[in-house]
User: Which sequence fits this backbone?
């Protein structure tokens, strides 16, 4: 059992999913976010407000940690200056603080949008070159390269989880391939923490969907084996989904709506617009 | 639900397997073949006799279709002139009519024999180069390249299903690896129709056999997940099968008997001669 | 020295370039085309009119040949029915006659248009999948697959030379990368004939241009080493060339203008329209 | 059913696991080892003492065999002279005797240690280059190359099973990825024997572990489908395992402790030292 | 001839090499840097001081440009905050201004240090994954990914030239493989500007050295053909060079001294310390 | 300049070519072979008779050496027992003595016959799997794997030069592709010695022939750049060469006559029988 884990982005949607399972994996869980507080603390959980773009503040929460689970960042396409501060500088501070505090490993919420412009008919694996679809994706590329640097030069391990579509349930036709269930998210983070050594590793964050469009085999040593499958939602979704357009990057690229959203504007809003009711 | 699907080769063995499931996927199913008629029409099924080597006749049946499921062709090695008319000209007419009628997609019964001369110890994926074993296989290569052309130049989508050994049950040692069950055939055709966008895609038509000799991962986004496994038939078959010869292309190539049958002569007859009783 | 070589397409532009060099490589050169006659026969050259779509006529000219250099076909995009007869049936007759007469090898004028829809920023080698840009290119794909079949099943060797832009000199910006000089054409055909064994081989027909966009290394055992370089023509051409459009397949695909010409219409005319004066 | 199978290394740990299942696959099982005798012979089993470094002795036991299952060798790192006699000369005698007696196939206990110096974060398949970690692994490389030679030049088939960690149950953190259960060992040997033709094939000997670090797809035509999963032992093992060191080849290479054991000294002893109690 | 080219980093060492050749390729050359002025302006050259981290200032110099040649950045490893402002924000402003002003293409001085941690015995091509060796290299990774994004989403072309060791002459043993002569630098920039279309392209900036350690073939369509060879300097250098250490990343990685320099400290100083006198 | 180089196989044909050039690269050259003496010693050359299968004798000659150039072995296919002693045990003693004496690097005469069964139409690079054609080739595979082991575990560097056909001039049709001139042999050995660090490296030993059938790019960092070309001998050789047979492994495999010579019998004799007079 680990002594101390730090979770950034604890007030976010996915952070909220992870707080309880992480609390069970360590003696002390420190959760942090820009928000004032989070509700329902576990007994061994402490919440510490921090701005990730401040190295000082990050240094404070990371003291004595064995691992950091880094989910704190703007979770959508946004104007460049916002991404720069939160997602680029905010990544630097996390890895730098991890290095200074001798944290063993960063488990990082990267994203499919680091490679979102690859066509969906290319069954890419984790060695496909970076091909971001937004500033948001570009910042994920940056953090992955930073993770590679800190491993090669400073021995800090990282697992970069390229999360696809993490929702309670899939709500559009694209998500039949790209869905990551909450259960599988927890399984993946658990594997990323428990695997004895990882060096610098990239893994696709996707469930065991019939229509899974990426090859996860290179990360198989992590032992992440997803158990959910979006296909059980196919009848509901396909009955309501609008037809797709084979000439449209939105429908043909891994990044989905992010492949066409104008830089700096919300892609999440566009995804929501494509979602079917439930 | 699609408005209209056209099935060519409806009087053939595999066409017969597909008629009912296709009827359930659309408002109107038009089945066609060179035969005078087919039995047991579904309520929403119309049969229209047509010679696929005639563009006029193909144009008539394709009018208003959303998709065409193209299984109509000589299903065995045959003299060049026959293959030329039925399988080469017959492919041209189908894609050309599809284009003229703005049909969205051709779901095509390609074949392992498009690549049958590759050695079985090569675990090929769908990017392995064409390497036909017969005129029959050569015509499949032609149709796949035609499909690629109509996608790149004219936006007609195609799913080329390289069907291996589609039988009610496997009946020879080779089929323990190459069998495609009727259930999995239906699953594959269904996926090829329902996947929202496909562009030009190739997929291996094979069940989830223990001994499956090809890599289907590049087409995983289609969501075809086979459920049958020839291995349940292994004891019956292996007890009766003649020994194989590691120096014989018939036993070492993906094409099996087609790898040695003289050009223009029946390979199906040779396969039958290798089959064990049941 | 070979006993007898047959050259098809002898009245064509490239055929005319090859007649003299081929005459020097054998005791008897038989040249053939659909035209009535060709001028300036070499002393050991015989001209025999033949329609390549007739197996009988092809059989007559091929009798006793050691090798056939097959350049006879429509050399431009054309309506399907024309391509079918001249380029598809015409390929079948050549390989079939070669087989029946125990001809050792077919040296074949394939074309870049067999793979013309690949993007130019992909540095493809000879294993890239077929991706034709026209019916013309589709027929080249067919002939290559036929050549593969006749080697694997019948032991007839083939060298498929994917000729790019064979002109006396390059006359447009694309040709700075794709030019094949007449001298290099002769060198390539000579290598294809003289290499002791070739099996089934594909080689790019392109000069040693600074901007060469394809990888010819897999055919290096043939010993084809080009000596000309289109770059000497760059100043003249670039001074006159219209700007290119990075969003236009014509400018971004290996096939050039063929990547956008409507199926069945002349691509050569479009290339001419892009040419600069000299 | 085969007439006669020979099992070498019958007195060893894995040989003992295989004797009964092999006896059921043939009319006559001849088991052999350097020991005087083995206990509990099956009714159709004969034991014949033999020194594998003597071609004469190997010739005697191999007479009339259909297949040989070759597990006889020093099963640990050892001084060079010992490995030379038992594992290198001992491999030569087995393949040479197999050739002279027209034995169809050698099913060989190769080892992960033939490629043990590859980093674990490289998800290698069976085409990764040899990269031995010990003299023991070097001898496995030798035997695989010998097997390749005897197939290419003499038509003797071989299946080289690169066994990872074959134990009754996994007992250290590394084995959560590398375990091969006894049941899966039997399944793999059975597949290697029953597959009608194999030529020269390499397969990873590993169970269906969540953390499996290698890609077995190239040998899928053999039909080996493992059924056990070390993950059921994860809680017990991880609770007791010492932390790993990402800078230590022992923890980062496929070979595990063999990646750091001095040449000539026991790696098995080092593995045992890492094992947790049960 | 282009109308207007902008050169950033004009006061730097490489910028100085490029000013004259660029002036000859366009009607108007605007050079810019953080310095007050540069000497020896060409007749058609205007110098405009600008801070690249200010979008406003960059917008001003880029107005009306056809292409921008972007060499302006800190040219050495430096503290994070400096790299962030000059090399990361400074890259954003260049591509953003290029987009707003409809500049056709950015010709960018990337660096080997974007992939400097790959071992030198790996003959990498331009698809090898990012593997930076310093913050400096990390910023190059960022700019390349930004370039990819602006091409895919906004149609701005980029040629990312991964410059190795650009010096007047090579001065250490490593540079015998990695040297880029000034003449070849000019040839490469010229090719990157003159190639009619490039999309997003990466090219190695290295001369035609005997010991060249990278594969440049994927960018061959650019027509960059180097003419200089560091080998002429080998006797002088090897006579003075200190022996290398095969266990030292400095001597075994593509990045050379940058592979071992502490993050934030000068790698150029370390390179100089390794240089031999001339 | 190196202090001491040891050359094994000094009395052999290639050893004789290397003695003078090696003497110029070091202060002291020790040459060794099984013969009593060699003629024409250089002033700084000492000859020491030694049997390579004796570790003691090898230890004696290697004392104090910086590098060993290992060419001592049976240079032809031979009976197993002979190959075992001279080429397998003889390789072990060289690397073991090198390790014990802290020799920096072994420059090794490996051979094309380590991979001779690959078809010539496969343009293999140095990562192609071992596929020996003889016991002779099998021993080369062994030594390469041994070299890999001594680098990974003990830090002894190795350059394995897979020499093709090293003759004064090419004398048969195969050698037009496979010739290594004496000048290029010396260039390659020089590069292998002078390259500052090599780790474990494999390089093809072949001249710059027009018909070169292998890809040497992965070893380009060594700086070996051949200057001779067998093509100048083509007219003489092709005029006399017997026709080749595309169905014959001798003519289709990289190993040439070794691909068909019976194991244990002389392949060199067969090559000579194929040679044309001069």
Assistant:
């Amino acid at each position: 059992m680990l002594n101390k884990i730090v979770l950034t982005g604890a007030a976010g949607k996915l952070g909220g999913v992870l707080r309880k399972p992480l609390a069970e994996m360590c003696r002390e869980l420190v959760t942090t976010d820009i928000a004032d507080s989070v509700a329902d603390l576990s007994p061994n959980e402490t919440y510490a407000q921090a701005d990730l773009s401040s190295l000082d503040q990050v240094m404070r929460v990371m003291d004595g940690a064995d691992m950091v689970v880094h989910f704190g960042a703007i979770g959508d396409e946004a104007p460049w200056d916002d991404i720069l501060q939160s997602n680029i500088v905010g990544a630097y501070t996390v890895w730098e603080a991890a290095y200074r505090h001798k944290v063993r490993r960063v488990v990082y919420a990267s994203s499919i949008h680091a490679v979102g412009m690859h066509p969906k008919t290319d069954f890419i694996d984790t060695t496909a070159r970076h091909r971001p679809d937004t500033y948001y994706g570009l910042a994920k590329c940056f953090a992955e390269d930073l993770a590679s640097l800190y491993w090669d030069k400073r021995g800090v391990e990282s697992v970069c989880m390229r999360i696809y579509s993490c929702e309670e349930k899939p709500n559009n036709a694209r998500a039949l391939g790209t869905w990551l269930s909450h259960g599988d998210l927890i399984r993946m983070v658990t594997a990323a923490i428990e695997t004895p050594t990882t060096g610098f590793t990239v893994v696709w964050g996707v469930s065991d969907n019939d229509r899974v469009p990426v090859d996860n085999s290179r990360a198989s040593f992590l032992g992440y084996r997803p158990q959910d499958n979006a296909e059980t939602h196919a009848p509901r979704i396909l009955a309501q989904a609008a037809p797709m357009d084979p000439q449209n990057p939105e429908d043909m690229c891994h990044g989905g709506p992010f492949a066409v959203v104008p830089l700096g504007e919300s892609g999440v809003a566009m995804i929501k617009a494509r979602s079917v009711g439930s």
In short: The first helix of chain B runs from residue 13 to 23. Strands of chain B lie at 2-8, 26-33, 45-49, 67-70, 105-111, 157-163, 165-166, 179-180, 200-205.
